[in-house]
């Protein structure tokens, strides 16, 4: 595989977890093409949440990278002009630009987000919207993919975004393998809400994780909202409310995303005909699978298989 150079640009006050997420997900592995360098401007050593971060690269690596990732910093500040110029130059020459959490402030200050949809941490989103009126702010997502510019919401949404990038680059199998190594949650689509009112069940409540796990083992069946509610021991209305509280999406939207994820794995790892793939992942017919692939991925199952088949 051709090497894909990734520059992680550490700003002053970079948040350790924001920095560690892309460093871990895009670390060098025999089966992935990523070559990752942590870069900075000026001093090579920064303090980040009590840690000393020593950067190997400089703005030169940022200018020559295939992907530049800007982790969040706290509080989000305005980077030096030379750093903003390097981001703008990289964007102009077609480099993929990514932010995690409040790293979106640096991208917006460099003009990279002008006229695009973007997101950032929900605690800073009002400030972000005031400071950068040229950016179309999306408040209710985990991440936004605008092609060669991608932004994620707060902190751990960076995991979702980075795995999404791996999925784009290398396919679902590679992304799922890395996700399992991180013991990360199953793939979450970017359209889910970033701020979940009750991410941890209240005392006495039971999580719906068992029901989701039950459904994942039955994707080939025609699962209904009633069946999901019966398994959870809830009314359908309560299931919908609790599902949104725990996942930020609806049960049927979650089920469709899970089925598309399963279809992608089957297309990458088997020679099964398209109609059989559709049946096994619960989408019924080849025509229905093609419809959802076109809507979600802007491609066809056949083209996807041709691109990502090992």
UniProtKB/TrEMBL annotation:
<feature type="domain" description="HTH araC/xylS-type">
    <location>
        <begin position="209"/>
        <end position="307"/>
    </location>
</feature>
<dbReference type="InterPro" id="IPR002818">
    <property type="entry name" value="DJ-1/PfpI"/>
</dbReference>
<dbReference type="GO" id="GO:0043565">
    <property type="term" value="F:sequence-specific DNA binding"/>
</dbReference>
<dbReference type="InterPro" id="IPR052158">
    <property type="entry name" value="INH-QAR"/>
</dbReference>
<dbReference type="InterPro" id="IPR009057">
    <property type="entry name" value="Homeodomain-like_sf"/>
</dbReference>
<keyword id="KW-0804">Transcription</keyword>
<dbReference type="Pfam" id="PF12833">
    <property type="entry name" value="HTH_18"/>
</dbReference>
<dbReference type="InterPro" id="IPR029062">
    <property type="entry name" value="Class_I_gatase-like"/>
</dbReference>
<keyword id="KW-0805">Transcription regulation</keyword>
<keyword id="KW-0238">DNA-binding</keyword>
<dbReference type="Pfam" id="PF01965">
    <property type="entry name" value="DJ-1_PfpI"/>
</dbReference>
<dbReference type="GO" id="GO:0003700">
    <property type="term" value="F:DNA-binding transcription factor activity"/>
</dbReference>
<dbReference type="InterPro" id="IPR018062">
    <property type="entry name" value="HTH_AraC-typ_CS"/>
</dbReference>
<protein>
    <submittedName>
        <fullName>Transcriptional regulator GlxA family with amidase domain</fullName>
    </submittedName>
</protein>
<dbReference type="InterPro" id="IPR018060">
    <property type="entry name" value="HTH_AraC"/>
</dbReference>
């Amino acid at each position: 595989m051709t090497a894909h150079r990734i520059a992680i640009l550490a700003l002053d006050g970079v948040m350790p977890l924001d920095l560690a997420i892309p460093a871990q997900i895009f670390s060098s592995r025999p089966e992935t093409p990523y070559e990752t360098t942590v870069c900075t401007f000026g001093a090579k050593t920064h303090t980040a949440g009590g840690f000393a971060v020593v950067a190997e690269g400089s703005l030169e690596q940022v200018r020559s990278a295939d992907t530049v990732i800007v982790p969040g910093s706290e509080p989000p500040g305005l980077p030096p002009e030379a750093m903003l110029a390097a981001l703008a130059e990289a964007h102009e020459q077609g480099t993929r630009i990514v932010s995690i959490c409040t790293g979106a402030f640096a991208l917006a200050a460099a003009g990279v987000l002008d006229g695009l949809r973007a997101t950032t941490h929900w605690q800073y989103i009002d400030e972000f919207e005031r400071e950068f009126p040229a950016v179309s702010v999306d408040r209710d997502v985990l991440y936004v993919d605008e092609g060669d510019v991608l932004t994620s919401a707060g902190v751990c949404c960076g995991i979702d975004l980075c795995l999404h990038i791996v999925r784009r680059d290398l396919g679902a199998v590679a992304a799922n393998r890395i996700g399992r190594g991180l013991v990360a949650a199953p793939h979450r689509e970017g359209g889910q809400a970033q701020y979940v009112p009750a991410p941890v069940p209240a005392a006495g409540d039971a999580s719906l994780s068992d029901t989701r796990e039950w459904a994942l083992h039955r994707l080939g069946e025609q699962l209904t909202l009633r069946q999901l509610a019966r398994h959870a021991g809830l009314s359908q209305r309560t299931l919908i409310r609790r599902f949104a509280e725990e996942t930020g999406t609806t049960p049927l939207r979650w089920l469709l995303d899970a089925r598309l994820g399963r279809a992608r794995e089957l297309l990458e790892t088997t020679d099964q005909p398209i109609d059989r793939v559709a049946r096994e992942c619960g989408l019924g017919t080849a025509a229905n699978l093609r419809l959802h692939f076109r809507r979600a991925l802007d491609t066809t199952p056949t083209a996807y298989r041709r691109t990502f088949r090992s």
